[in-house]
Amino acid sequence: MCVWVEVSSPRHPAALLVIFTLLHHVRSEERSECSVRLDSHRAMIPLYYDKYTSPATDTNPAIVYFDMKLLDISSINENDMTFSVESFVTYRWKDWRIHWPLDRPDLDPCWNPPPLNITKPLRFSQVCTGNYTAVIPRCVSSSPPSSRRLILPVKFLENIWQPDAFFKNAIRSSVHKDWVSNEFLAFYTSDGHMGLFSRMSITLMCHFDFHHYPHDEQKCEMLIQSLSYKTEVVRFEWCENWAHASSKLDQEIFSLPHFTLAKYEHQVCNGDFPCVKAVFVLVRHPDFHILHTYVPTALIVILSWMSFWIAPDATPARVTLGVTSILTMATQYSQSTKNLPPVSYIKSLDIWMITCMVYVFAALLEFAIVYHVHYRRSLAPSPGLVSTSTNGSTQVTHVTQELTSRRFQRWRQSWAEFWSGDTAIDEASRVLFPLTYFSFVLGYFVLLTGPQEKGLLSRPPI
Question: What are phi and psi of 263, to 5 degrees?
Answer without folding.
Answer: -165, 160
